[in-house]
Design brief:
Helices cover about 35% and strands about 15% of the residues. With about 240 residues, it is an alpha/beta fold. Strand 4 and strand 5 form a beta hairpin. Helix 7 runs parallel beside helix 9.
Amino acid sequence: MKIIQYPSPNHGERTLAVDMLMMHYTGMKSGAEALERLCDPEGQVSAHYLVEEDGRVFQLVEENLRACHAGVSIWRGERDSNSRSIGIEIVNPGHEWGYRAFPDTQINAVIKLSQQILSRHDIPARHVVGHSDVAPARKTDPGELFPWDILARNDIGIAPPKVGDGGNLLVSKGTKNEKSIQAQRLLNQIGYDVPLTGQWDDHSITNMTAFQRHFHPQRLDGLVDEGSMEALEKTVAAMVYGI
């Protein structure tokens, strides 16, 4: 695929081997505005690639370098997400400026680019994540409209599981019971940073909402009904046991 070189000065040296691929949306009014921001030395933010809505792909940072796209984050116990990841910014105005579905042409380009990246690096499917997965208290991208299922059909990441209707509510804010501790354990097995207190507090709700954006967008409130619990269990099975 044709890749347009558009170097950003905002990068550094890696301290970890690449084992993660991270998807973002730009969350700005236009792709041109996002490119300018990602290349502004005063902004100190960047990504390895940017994919426009028309399918054009820009490379801003070489893959062997550490880009500045994840910020304060954690996934599966590691906090330096920038050093271990390759970041793809996908042009979309985001929740602030009119969040919308991603065009097929754009997603096809993301798929081709991701397949090339995965061919060059040892990145397990469980480490193909969204920005909101690693920074759930700060970020919502690439959001609930991002087609993770289509990517998974092309061997990129884990597909959101097929589950039944929502069913009864099992865990709400303040709940402390067997179901709340079970949900916390499952979130941790997937990669989220959730203390095993059993108390379904704001932190648990924030991380559960991030899980829902990625794997169970039928519900986006951080509470756990029967469908959400089934989604957690099936996601763990796919990530940990490959089923």
